[in-house]
Amino acid sequence: MSQPVGDIGLIGLAVMGQNLILNMNDKGFTVVAYNRTTSKVDAFLANEAKGTKIQGAHSVEELVSKLKRPRKIILLVKAGPAVDDFIRQLEPHLEKGDIIIDGGNSHYPDTIRRSKELESKGLLFVGSGVSGGEEGARYGPSLMPGGSPAAWPAIKEIFQATAAQVNGEPCCDWVGEGGAGHYVKMVHNGIEYGDMQLIAEAYDILKRGLGLHEDEIADIFNNWNKGVLDSFLIEITANILKFKDDDGEPLVPKILDQAGQKGTGKWTAIAALDAGMPVTLIGEAVFARCLSSLKEERIRASKVIAGPQKEAFKGDKKQFIDDLEQALYASKIISYTQGFMLMRQTAKDLGWTLNYAGIARMWRGGCIIKSVFLGDIAAAYQKNSNLESLLFDDFFNKAAHKAQPGWRRIIAQAVLWGIPTPAFSTALAFFDGYRSEVVPANLLQAQRDYFGAHTFRVVPGKENTKLKLGEDIRTHQLDRSWR
Ligand code: NBP
Which of 139, 260, 331, 339 lies at 20 to 30 Å from 193 by C-alpha? Predict the structure, then answer.
């Protein structure tokens, strides 16, 4: 039998799989392609892969036989049972040290489970976030691999060569143990929901508040793309707003205002609740999509619930637009602050060692949230990998302070107009809560004790004969006497 020539195998010839194979082929690797419906293998070889080094396989066994050791096989199939099915099919053909990589959008608890199961059998497992959609897969995605650490040296070269490159650095590094790769990808998607919601709110304020036309709004976004907001999402928003239908009118107002979602934003919000971390902006972004989907109900409500009288804007438009840029920037700082706080807490809870500067670098290119801003986050964590939150970093601390007056003016004006800004507003509420030495949770604790005997702790220095620091209030004469 001839020597195996494949550097890596890939199962799943839908959009992502085909493009990633072509990308890896361009980088000089020999890829062996397989798909459940094997006619797709033949079609791929005869068309997109024609004239390349790409090899095909018509069974899992043939795929494995064509791979060099240790075998590396990427699954790019629909997340869920299909991943487990392929793992079961592959196992009997693999040897100790071989590596299965799940590049789909799997939920991280599944990745933790699969890592444990396969490691117990001597195999290695990697759950890798792959971001950037079709275009990213073809020309350089952001890759976020995590799982069995022993797999990294074997896949590093292929992964880093295949990933997007920013200033000569690959948007791919080892994320951490177990489900860390898919966890970080999940948070990335949650942050993407947040960024998109913030941009949508800015559009709403410019459209319904200032009454600007889509072309004017596109010009504003184009300008913003030259400053602190320089990012893929701002850039494509300007292009989208400029786009005209056949009748010459902007297309965007003709699109039904009901947002879809595939669930990764919801997973992030649930993970935040589970970890007890206030990731409020992503939560609001998910809820805003939920509210958008209540279209029929909103139509009925719009007929019977009145907001404030619409008043034309009388202030300085240029100043207002500059304020809005700052509001968007500051809210974005809060969203990333919250996202990194969540990853930090989860790493602590699950015993992962996450490289936060590395994560920011991985997101700088190849993915939907790519931006210049992520370079600043990488720099902040490079300076201090133990940073509790970005607001303690000098650069972001100054940026948030600078943005603060405009940020407040925008939210105040939106409230007066009756234009909802759930993401802008929750970001500011978090900022004000986070910077408050005292919050009214003392009253909550008293209420909890009053109705449920939950006890409370006493502020240091406020101890007296009844109140002793750190003691259970039920042990004192004060016990229940306030009822
Ligand atoms: P899909 O998510 O549409 O999956 C299609 C592939 O899954 C095909 O190869 C199909 O085989 C296979 N498959 C299905 Br469906 N059910 C199967 C089963 N029960 N057993 C075995 N194979 C099964 O493809 P995609 O859009 O390329 O995405 C691949 C992965 O990457 C997904 O997890 C997705 O969430 C993730 N992802 C997608 C994007 C994107 O922009 N599309 C971006 C980032 C990540 P068949 O041909 O025989 O039906």
Answer: 139
Atom 20 (ligand 1) nearest CA: 82
Decide: 78 in ligand 1 pocket, CB within 6 A: yes
Peptide bond just before 70 cis, omega within 30 deg: yes
Q: Please answer whether residues 281 and 427 qualify as being in contact, where contact means their C-beta atoms are separated by less than 8 angstroms.
A: yes
Q: What is the pLDDT of residues 346-381, one digit of tens each?
A: 999 999 999 999 999 999 999 999 999 999 999 999
Which residue type does 149 have?
A: P
- Within the chain, how many helices (H) and strands (E) appear? 19, 10
Instruction: Find out whether 124 and 178 touch, Cβ atoms under 8 Å.
Output: no
Cβ atoms within 10 Å, residue 421: 25
Q: Indicate whether residue 316 lines ligand 1 (CB < 6 A).
A: no
Q: Catalytic one among 66, 177, 192, 332?
A: 192
Q: What is the pTM of this model?
A: 0.94
What does the pLDDT look like over 140-167, one tens digit per residue?
A: 999 999 999 999 999 999 999 999 999 9
In the three-class reduction of DSSP (H, G, I as helix; E, B as strand; rest coil), residue 328 is classed as helix
d(CA 430, CA 426): 6
Task: Measure 101 CA to ligand 1 centroid, in angstroms.
Answer: 14
pLDDT digits (tens, 9 = 90+) for 38-93: 999 999 999 999 999 999 999 999 999 999 999 999 999 999 999 999 999 999 99
**Residue ID of nearest Cα to ligand 1 atom 18:** 82
Angstrom distance (rounded) from CA 431 to CA 337: 10
Three-state DSSP class for 67?
strand
Rounded CA-CA distance 334/194 in Å is: 10
Helix (H) or strand (E) holding 191: helix 180-204
